[in-house]
Write a structure and sequence with these properties.
Two copies of one chain form a homodimer.
Chain A: H1 13-33, H2 39-46, H3 50-56, H4 60-84, H5 88-103, H6 110-117, H7 127-146, H8 156-171, H9 176-190
Helix pairs in contact in A: 1-2, 1-4, 4-5, 5-7, 5-8, 6-8, 7-8, 8-9
Chain B binds a DNA duplex through helix 1, helix 2 and helix 3.
Protein name (chains A, B): Putative HTH-type transcriptional regulator LmrA
DNA-binding region (chains A, B): 38-57
Keywords (chains A, B): DNA-binding, Transcription, Transcription regulation
Chain lengths: 197, 197
DNA sequence: CATCAAAACGGATGCTGCCTCCGCATGTAT
DNA sequence: ATACATGCGGAGGCAGCATCCGTTTTGATG
């Protein structure tokens, strides 16, 4: 039972076509109208019936998770760059910004993400990406802590929540200036105070 | 033109009755099902038709604002207690908690509040309460700054956003422990660092 | 108390979106 | 070419929103 599949039959050609069309269309609609966009409209524009959409993606979250897959890979790619940085504090900061942008991909995205982040929702397709992000954040936090740049009481989970909140606020139309101030505030909160006196 | 009204006619009795019934029922439904509750259901349970509901409260936000009025008064009452405190830093902290509880009154409340908080929505009935809260927060911030307990770069608006975010996270079912940590993080962010060395 | 007109009521209505179910067609193996 | 599994898609039931208009209620007036 390795990775190679094909148990019994070859998968039909139309299902792949439809799935691809749905994903492509859904991404466009999520971009334009946010995560609350009409699924019926997505199906129609993808040239399939509602039934087909729901068979491929039983819930809105499932569709969202599938669409997000692409973006997740971009995030991972970014991670490579970030890991090049010598300064772990700088790396953490950049990672937080990267996550924030990821959360801001579609308007309204932070809500389902937060809903999935609280564990005990094992069937929610968004839970896995969330958990990955949280533990990745924790890695950066720990590295920065080892370098004495971040307070010891901080957890990756905390900064995940913070990044998600900021994306949520941003999605509600707050001016970038206010966001910058809030980011500063949070940064002041997690940074280790230099014993400079 | 004082406060006494009665221009032309005496207001009809049924409108007051209906308005009161609607507010009472709406509050219950908001409590039980969140701000997204069915307005039709509210109307039905209040014993009026949908038309009557929409005449009294043209939008969901209008109804929400009216229901929130009561709670706002409780907040103001709390303010009196808080103002008694000698320590302006303690006062700020308590005020933030009070706001957070206010934002958590109904599940989903932070979203419409945030939407109203970005100005340039003068017709949104929630804008006024928001502005009041923001400037009240700013008062507490300034007092604490005068006492040298809060960093100079912080604005009331920032902490308003922070409190709203925390309420939003709370509403999404995150455990209280994570919230506490986040509150700590934010507090570390706005507090003036003591020149203690 | 009877009458009138303004004001408010409320439900029927049209609309949009969600999600399911099942007869039909499409594609794959023999 | 045939058979059969598999997937398709649209019709349809449901719920909620918001509006419009014929009817009722209510306060004012004599």
């Amino acid at each position: 039972m390795g990775a190679g599949e094909q148990r019994g039959r070859k998968p039909r050609a139309d299902v792949q076509r439809n799935r691809a069309a749905l994903l492509e269309t859904a991404q466009r609609h999520f971009l334009q109208h946010g995560v609350g966009t009409s699924l019926e409209a997505v199906a129609k524009e993808a040239g399939v019936g509602p039934g087909t959409l729901y068979r491929h993606f039983p819930t809105r979250e499932a569709l969202l998770a599938a669409v997000l897959q692409t973006r997740s890979e971009e995030l991972v790619a970014r991670q490579a760059d970030i890991d090049q940085l010598g300064d772990p504090a700088e790396a953490l900061e950049q990672w937080l910004r990267a996550m924030e942008e990821y959360f801001s991909a579609f308007s309204g995205l932070p809500d389902p993400l937060m809903a999935a982040a609280r564990a005990q929702e094992p069937d929610n397709p968004l839970t896995i990406p969330c958990d990955i992000l949280i533990s990745a954040t924790d890695q950066y936090v720990r590295a920065a802590q080892r370098a004495g740049r971040v307070r010891a009481s901080v957890r990756g989970h905390d900064l995940f929540l913070a990044a998600c909140s900021i994306a949520w606020i941003k999605g509600n139309g707050t001016e970038e200036e206010s966001l910058d101030r809030l980011r500063m505030l949070i940064a002041s909160g997690y940074r280790q105070r230099d014993a400079q006196a």
